Amino acid sequence: MKLISVFLVMNHYTPYSLESEELVLSRLLLNVEVINKVAETIPVNAFYFPIHKYIYKLIHQLHSKSEEISIIKIERILLQDNQFIQIGGRYIFNQLINISTNSIDINEHINILLDLYIKREFLKYLLKMISICYTSCSCYLIFKTSDIIFNYLKNLLISYNSVLNTTTESTKDLFPQLFIDMVNQSKKTTSFSGVCSGYADFDAITKGLQNQDLIILAGRPGMGKTTLALNIVLNIVQQKKAAIIFSVEMSKKELLYKLTAIASQIPTDLLQTGALEDFHWKKLIKAGKYLQDLPLFIDDSPLLTPSYIKDKIIHLNITGLQVIMIDYLQLIQYPDFKDDRIKELSFITRSLKFLARELNVPIIVLSQLSRLVEARLNKRPLLSDLRESGCITSNTFIDYLNCRHPLYKSYYYKYNTKLKVFSLPNFTYYYSNKYKNFRTGHKNIYRLSCSLPSEICLTANHQVFTHFGWKRLDTLERNDYAVILPYKKSRLVNLHICTLIVWSGKQSTYDIEEISSHNFIANQFLIHNSIEQDADLVAMLYREDYYKVTNNAEEEIFHASSKSITEIHIVKHRKGRTGIFELEFDTTISKFNSLHR
């Protein structure tokens, strides 16, 4: 191992591409508009050669300060720098601006730079680990250092995974495949492009479960979300399409009882007690043989993580896998974020979205709705009930590129400007056009004041960035420090003590969904996004009888045993329309049926 380390260092065997660095820099200098994309994708250290790093760093700094960028301005600043001149900068700069880049695919070379940068980082830190193993006598120090290094490398790889796995193609290359897909779709017996759920109304809205989609199925406990997901999975595997269920909420045995009840139409309580008549046994034997032949897999590991799910699927090597079901989101854990649940949930949903794209299958994830639903007179679910980030008021000032204005103006007047966000890993600002504004209802609002003075009005469950990391407003205490990001200060970050949190009545509320760093700046506070930003489709369950209270014992028994009408609210659909439809829920046999009208 020591010889390998010495060989790598002594022979300077470092992965880099001089050609890609020159081509990317040349394109930036000759077409500065490209910087808007490149600055959000390529870090300064992605360039290996110091002179290239020097030039790109200047361009990146000008962009981060929102200053005007031109080749003349860049050249003037560089040629005034003696250090740049001494390292041969004038010659290199002239070379770069004379390279022809019109015929090259810039995205391909960006991917090459990122790929080689990640490899250099891996080599650098692995060599450090080798050195520590030879020089340290403390196994504890080696363990702690390796833990920090591996977490850094893992997060680095995840952060650039979507860029490296996405290739850019022209419409000339894309259209033939699209045409083939359309021809194949026209030959199908259904008009759905995805996997049929078995429910006509659901498929009419969604066109089936689409490959690579992250689907969240949410409801309050006892509403029937697990049962509905099992019905969908069973409908899919009946088409001889494979599926796998990962469950932390229920054991294999409990899931099998539900599946058997659905398939045999025998009440679950009779299956569990064994109080079966002869005709029950005949139905049970038939259902058992049927279920045994289905390509359905169940995993009830209590330590469920995104990496475990991926490793298990790869290990099983399931032929024809069409859908993955996970029960449920809030029980999935990731040890690296044990002290920051919001960051953990964000990482988990993003990892599951990456997994859906990598495996090219839809992933159905069950999720609990906020208990704030119970406090409303109208208890029908809203998208905001899924969020753990809460909402803000309409007059909150939001930071954008070169301006800041109240949130309601963005919502009503549809300003087309980039949102100012904060990169926590790099501790710097950048601007994102991957966001949207929306109204979330009428809610209880609390005013948070700091010593700046600065204040913001938001719901109790909204996350604010503090010296302890992300904290919900209802867990903040006086003398906690909130992070304040003053407007028009490019890198200045201040900590100000929280002085007051007071109820301010009910107000109209709004929110912003930003899909890269999952945060934005409101009234100079850094606040967090929602947990559903990575979902392609969000469906929520609602049953009127779930909330029905009665003092009549006979009526209560009737409602408990009768079939229930369940509303399915498609509240978010990235690829199509939203809507509401109804299913009949037979609670005795855990069966959802389409309504015949």
Task: Describe the SSE topology.
Layout: H1 2-10, H2 18-30, H3 35-38, H4 50-64, H5 71-79, H6 82-86, H7 89-97, H8 106-135, H9 139-164, H10 171-186, H11 200-206, E1 214-219, H12 225-237, E2 242-247, H13 252-264, H14 268-273, H15 278-292, E3 296-299, H16 306-316, E4 321-327, H17 341-359, E5 363-368, E6 392-393, E7 397-400, E8 403-406, H18 407-413, E9 419-423, E10 428-432, E11 435-450, E12 454-458, E13 463-466, E14 469-472, E15 481-484, E16 494-514, E17 519-522, E18 525-528, E19 537-543, H19 553-561, E20 564-573, E21 579-586, E22 591-594
Parallel strand pairs: 1-5, 1-19, 2-3, 2-4, 4-5
Antiparallel strand pairs: 6-16, 7-8, 9-10, 11-12, 11-16, 13-14, 15-16, 17-18, 19-20, 20-21, 21-22
Helix pairs in contact: 2-8, 8-9, 13-15
Task: Give the CATH level 1 class of the largest domain.
Answer: Alpha Beta
Question: How many helix segments?
Answer: 19
**Backbone shape:** globular
* Fourth CATH level, the homologous superfamily of the largest domain: P-loop containing nucleotide triphosphate hydrolases
* Total domain units: 3
β-strand number: 22
The gyration radius over C-alpha positions equals 28 Å
Strand order of the largest sheet: 3-2-4-5-1-19-20-21-22
